[in-house]
Amino acid sequence: MKKIFAVFALFATLTFVISCGGGSSKIVVEGSESEKNTGELGGECYGNGTCNRGLICDEESNICVEDPENPSEQTDDNVDTSSDPNAPQTPCNPNPCKDVANSTGSCAVVDEDYACGCLEHYSWTGSVCKADSRVADCTGLPANATWNTAESISQTWDGEAWYPSETGTYNSNPSSSECRFKCEPDYDWNGWQCASTSTPCNPNPCTSISNSTGVCTVNGTGYTCGCQSGYTWNGGSCQSNGGSSLPECSASSGTPCKDSSSGLTWSARASTSYTWQIAVDYCNSYSEGGLSGWHLPTISELRTLIKNCSGTVTGGSCGVTDSCLSSSCQDESCYSCDYYEDGRYSKFGEIGWFWSSSTISDPGYAWLVFFNYGRVGGSNKTDSYPSVRCVR
């Protein structure tokens, strides 16, 4: 009887141990434990319902069992094994994309190979993340310009932007790979626009005028022709001056007067100052001493009135002349003389600023002379402080 009771107690103990082990991935056999890892034969299935190669997941027990149909070809490519050291190797385990340049580090199994995820503007080529390329239309063509060969270009991502840029730049040399433009005929690039090269003196209207020397000078929006000796420009022709005698221009002379060193005839100083355009119009319609055909002097003409300042007298080293009107033509010699208020720098013995008709490369500004210094400078055309003296 005691033996029967002992056998019954042993059986009950084994039954209790087996029933208590059901909540884990351990299998208990004959009173001893043998631990099974997830995905192995007899172990729990992976979270996505798969097991290691050659095994399938029994849905009822959630235990991995042998695949009776094709154990040798069973695959776990869809298993997330990135954090499981015991998972089977696949094209993405270990992850080959972590060290690929311009990759996001993500890896996807494709058939029996892999593909790495790439950063924006990069594409997977099978071995590297290659910078994308595209075709873009050129932009930013200014007025009076045309594309210098290419109207669209191929661009490649350089890590920060598309290169070359699709924004056009001025370049007279043609290119099929960059967005370049050039100015149309009769236009030149002045640094920010294609400006017309046509002027009142181009083509030259003076070559067909009787008694003209053929020399044409732009004054504002009009022009002045040089005339033969004994003739004076009246705004439309070289008119005979009838041998009339004018006084030599000086601080004490009346006007009109003639400067024998330049051959120019000068008017009286205007009684008030003007903005540049009003000064131009004032001289174009001016009449004095029975003479017409006046104009606002060019910067070269105005410089003939400077004296005692070596840098700015006619022929001085100051580069601003009728043939060089860019702001780059101005150098230190254009303002190298000291300040005086005694009129020593003017043939008329006067001081103050005087307008010229010559426009600086920036069309909003014009050249002038400041006789207090004998200086050649520039000013905004809307300024109204400069004085006016007309010439013919």
Structure write-up:
- 8% of the residues lie in helices and 29% in strands.
- It is rod-shaped, with a radius of gyration of 47 Å.
- With 392 residues, the protein is mostly beta strands.
- The model is unreliable at 1-33 and 72-83 (pLDDT under 50).
- The chain folds into three domains: 2-66, no CATH class; 133-196, no CATH class; 246-391, Mannose-Binding Protein A, Chain A (Roll).
- Strands 9-11-12 form a three-stranded antiparallel sheet, with no helix packed on it. The protein has a three-stranded mixed sheet with strand order 10-14-13, with no helix packed on it.
- It is built from three helices and 26 strands.
Main sheet: which strands, in order across? Answer: 9-11-12
How far is the N terminus from the C terminus? Answer: 151 Å
Gross geometry: rod-shaped
Biggest beta sheet summary: 3 strands, antiparallel
CATH architecture of the largest domain: Roll
**Helices and strands, in N-to-C order?**
HEEEEEEEEEEEEEEEEEEEEEEHHEEEE
Report the CATH C-level class of the largest domain: Alpha Beta
Number of helices: 3
Give the count of structural domains: 3
Structural class: mainly beta
Chain-averaged pLDDT = 84
- The percentage helix is under 10%
Number of strands: 26
* CATH fold name of the largest domain: Mannose-Binding Protein A, Chain A
